[in-house]
């Protein structure tokens, strides 16, 4: 459904900012919308002019979040849905579904320690997606992403709705961190920085490719190693600073909003939209892998290769494969056993 907004004030403002001449209606759902990530993500999606309908779903507390966000004078209409019996309504007609539902880490835990609770949550939500909006792009935030994405794929395969172009593990926060840390060390303007981050989303499976970072800074090897380690441990740095009160929420909401915006731009036909994401892949021998992907009208248009790697990055790539392979296998096994 397309609505020409060219003559309205909102339409002119969109045109000035380089959006297409006709802005399509787009429905976005956030599942887990009352949580630490869900609330600021709901706010940021409410501010996105590409969204026309915003569905906020959680098992509790969504009416308040939805009422609050709905007063903001931006384009989208907001509706809150609470409890499983309202999940279908939240999902019907969705173009993009963002999933930050599930428990976060406490100090001392790995992301894999969340598997037992979050695997079941993600499986249930993906079954509903298969039923109510099988064509939506799914942005998976719930951890462990290295396993929850394969779980989602298996659920969709069983339902007969799997389209590998439409399932994404959100690894944007790794890119956001790599950019911030690199800009600080290289003393360059953070707004100009680009750094691909590949692999997965846990510990050593997060592999930032600082050899490809721009603007070039020729940092010494020990700085590159320290930046790599800080990017890999970025989530843990926040978990420890929050001291039992959860993990990254505000920076994650920012990253999730950037990735969802890229998905919407791709759907709307904006050319050359490229972001890193954990997707079905043939870039390595592993069935899922994060790398740069080009987004288009059907989701992933092209999974881009890794480009030239330094010796240090080649070693990092080989070291991450066993862990990533095992996390992917764990997700696939869970989905097929439960
Ligand atoms: N991909 C990434 O880069 C990142 C992922 N995360 C992950 O995101 C997830 C959420 O983190 P937070 O928002 O901090 O947790 P939170 O506990 O603050 O919020 C989670 C929300 O999910 C809801 N929820 C639980 N079961 C649900 C279900 N079946 N359906 C719908 N909603 C449900 C809860 O009611 C709660 O409101 C965690 O698994 C965390 O590890 C966190 C940061 C970064
Ligand atoms: O570290 C965590 O548990 C949350 C997360 O994925 C991140 O912040 O990258």
Automatic annotation (TrEMBL):
The active site is at 201 (proton acceptor). Its main location: mitochondrion. It comes from the Eukaryota. Keywords: Mitochondrion, NAD, Oxidoreductase, Transit peptide, Tricarboxylic acid cycle. This is Malate dehydrogenase. One of its GO terms (biological process) is tricarboxylic acid cycle. NCBIfam families: MDH_euk_gproteo.
């Amino acid at each position: 459904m397309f609505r020409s907004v060219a003559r309205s004030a909102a339409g002119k403002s969109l045109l000035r900012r380089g959006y297409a001449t006709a802005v399509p209606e787009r429905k976005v759902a956030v599942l887990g919308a009352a949580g630490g990530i869900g609330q600021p993500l709901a706010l940021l999606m409410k501010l996105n002019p590409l969204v026309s309908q915003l569905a906020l779903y959680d098992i509790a507390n969504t009416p308040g979040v939805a009422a609050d966000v709905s007063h903001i004078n931006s384009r989208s209409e907001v509706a809150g849905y609470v409890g499983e019996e309202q999940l279908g309504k939240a999902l019907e007609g969705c173009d993009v579904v963002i999933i930050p539902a599930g428990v976060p880490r406490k100090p001392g835990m790995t992301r894999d320690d969340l598997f037992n609770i979050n695997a079941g949550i993600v499986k249930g939500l993906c079954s509903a997606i298969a039923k109510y909006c099988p064509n939506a792009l799914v942005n998976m935030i719930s951890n462990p992403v290295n396993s929850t994405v394969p779980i989602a794929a298996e659920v969709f395969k069983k339902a007969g709705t799997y389209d590998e172009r439409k399932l994404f593990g959100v690894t944007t926060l790794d890119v956001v961190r790599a950019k911030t840390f690199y800009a600080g060390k290289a003393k360059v303007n953070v707004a100009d920085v680009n750094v691909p981050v590949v692999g997965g989303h846990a510990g050593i499976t997060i592999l930032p490719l600082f050899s490809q970072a721009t603007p070039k800074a020729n940092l010494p090897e020990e700085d590159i190693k320290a930046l790599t380690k800080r990017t890999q441990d970025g989530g843990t740095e926040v978990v420890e600073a929050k001291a039992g009160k959860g993990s990254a929420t505000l920076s994650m909401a920012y990253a999730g909003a950037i990735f969802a915006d890229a998905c919407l731009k791709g759907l709307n036909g904006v050319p050359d939209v490229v972001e890193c994401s954990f997707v079905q892949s043939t870039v390595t021998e592993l069935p899922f892998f994060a790398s740069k992907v080009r987004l288009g009208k059907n989701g992933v248009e092209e999974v881009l290769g890794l480009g030239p790697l330094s010796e240090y990055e080649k070693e990092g790539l080989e070291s991450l494969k066993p862990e990533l392979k095992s996390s992917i296998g764990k997700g696939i096994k869970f989905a097929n056993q439960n």
